[in-house]
Amino acid sequence: MAIKTRRFYSARKSCSCSMPGVWRAVAYMDGAVVVFHSPRACAHVARTMDINSQYRTLSENEREQWGSVPLLSSQMQEKDAIFGGVARLEKCLRFAIETYKPKCLMIANSCVAGVIGDDVESVAREVEEEYNVPILTVECCGFLGAEYYDGYFEITQKLLERFVKPCTKQKDSVLLLGDNGGPWGHYAKEVTRILQEFGVEVIGQFPGYMAMDELEKVAAAEYAVVLGGRGQTHIGLRKVAEQLQEKYGTHYLADIYPVGWQETQDWIISIGRMLGREQLAQQVLKLEQQRLDEQLQHFLPVTEGKKTVLCIGRILRYFHPGNILQTIRLLRLNLTGIILLDSYDGDEREAMLKVVQEKSDVPVYTTAEGEKLVAEADIVLTTHELQNKEARQIFLPMLPQVAVAGEVKMMQGIYQSLCSRLKGGVRYV
């Protein structure tokens, strides 16, 4: 009998709303207010996303450093779909300005506003002239020909054009580009810690986490580091970095996602090269290697030689096997087989198989062939939860944590699972 999983994520194309993207791009920019030209429920959904983010932060024993900016809705109703909703929008903008005294308003348009063709720009222009408060609008409308990152990057572009101006560079300063949980998230904290080893200071995280009054620092930074992953997010952030370099001479680092020890080493070397401090990069590498080795001395007595199976069901865009294969080697686990789950079409399976065979000489199996391997394994590392109560499983996250701290956390999860007296269950790292 073949291996069964609890669920598959098999979407080939994302489908999302552009309005939460606008909201997230400015969510913690003190002095801003976001207005959704939409029914009330749309703002509720975006707020729910923000609450989920806060819960995730708390679960990791962290806390947000400041609150999110106000999010309002023009509260469009059924009759507005017939007669238009510009009057509601104008009333909402006036209320926002008079109540919150913002330094800038951002308007995100809903599907309804896009379908009925409300002239949002004209309303924004009239209210801006009356109150002398900048109001930014976006062309994308909810799900209509756009998605989350269209809203995110369009409002980011508007902020750059409207508020960022040439200024004197601040020596040894770095600007972080992207979100990834904000300044209090694991990614930004690890990057900031390593950059401090190089003697440089992080002066902000753009967009989303700099007050409106601080946007001049965007051009003041000598360097920029993209907190990208892979795919659409990284492409958009790289374009922002390229624009900063072209207009303000900001050197940037992109294209390296420091997940796993090898990628972390490459990232540190690239940072040293960007800063012109290659020798210092070698010293930083040595310190990080010592941190990793200290943890390995603790883990290896338990992990060495344990029978391990790796189950992969994500496409290459979302999962690269090289990082977890290196973790397996560092822990000296005995990898008995790699199983490609039944979530692939032909081309995707061949692409993953090619990379797996380049990175490892371990036999690759189908789900039909791999059931016995899973039954005999001490631990199973998997991208999908398996329907097997006896298998001791480590669920490989969609967004793994970065640098040595992230590598150690993954190793610790494997170590703790192997130490457990219980055979079975899923551990989420």
Question: What does this entry look like structurally?
Answer:
Helix 13 (321-330) links the parallel strand 9 (307-312) and strand 10 (334-340). This protein folds into three domains: 19-163, Rossmann fold (3-Layer(aba) Sandwich), CATH 3.40.50; 170-255, Rossmann fold; 289-428, Rossmann fold (3-Layer(aba) Sandwich). Helix 4 runs parallel beside helix 6 (120-131) and helix 12 (278-303) packs parallel to helix 16 (403-419). The chain has 16 helices and 14 strands. The chain has helices spanning 19-26, 40-59, 80-83, 86-100, 111-116, 120-131, 148-163, 186-197, 217-220, 232-248, 261-275, 278-303, 321-330, 346-359, 371-376, 403-419, and strands at 32-37, 71-73, 104-109, 135-141, 170-177, 201-206, 221-226, 251-253, 307-312, 334-340, 364-365, 379-382, 393-395, 426-428. The strands form three sheets. The protein has a six-stranded parallel sheet with strand order 11-10-9-12-13-14. It is an alpha/beta fold and 429 residues long.
